[in-house]
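Dear colleague,

Thank you for sharing your sequence with our group. We've completed the structure prediction you requested, and as agreed, I am returning the results in plain text so they can be pasted directly into your records. Please verify that the sequence below matches your submission; if there's any discrepancy, let me know and we will rerun it promptly.
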Amino acid sequence: MTVSLVPTIVRLIVDSSPSSPSFTSSTPSTSSAPPLTSPIQIDEIQKMNDHFFKMDSNLNKSRRMAFTNSRLLDIFSGMCKMPFEKHQLQPFDFRTYRGYQKQEYVMLFNYANTLPGFQDLSNASQNFLFRIACGVDFVISSSYYTNCIGTESKLLINQDGTYIQMMPLPLLGDEPGTELMFTKKEELEKYKNIIKPRVKSWIEFMPLYEALHPSFEENCILKALCCWQTAHFNLQECDKDTSEVMELVNSLIIMSFFEIMDGDPLINEILSTTTLFS
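Please find the predicted structure tokens below.
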């Protein structure tokens, strides 16, 4: 990915926003798109770029404050491109892991709430886009952190500053005799549900992401693009059956992000598919 792709990516995000005609209508426009060389457009693109950079910087600052012992001076010192330093990482422990904590959902709500066009959506569509943003951030941010400070040491960096050693690869839980390493069947199932998607991400997704070698700025825009391209349709006006949308919400790419065990009641409501259209 090169910097020259940034204007094109931003245009895609603008075209898929709720205020854009292409977001609410499937009828192609007969008018030709104005050139990107207009001084006004270039200024607007740069303004949107800066907005996306600030969104991710603020999210990184929140994570630095929540998951490290950094000084306040370090948290409020300009653009934050990485929330963690390598020495601040903590080993991941699946036994104590309880999924996203409430503070993390607050961070991601603040992120989703500042996506361009978010305020123009219905309540149900805001709910859906928020969930998509959680999933996209889980994958993209983890990949970015891993690419920056983890790959050299074969570490997969999670969004909360924990790491999983990927050399050698962790057991998947299906190997003969693996059940003897766990005291309960439920513990083994929890291990498999948590570790398998992460190993899959390391093997299948990380090489593709590393090939892009995105900068912080490119990663910010890539993440915003993924959010809108995954949830660009308005659910209240969508012609898909409810069952199809539910299948999307319950798919592996979404469910692997929400491994909540006895979560907060508000979080349970956010993640429940029964509240998606309410």
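Summary note from our side: Residues 3-26+35-275 form one domain.

Kind regards,
the structure core
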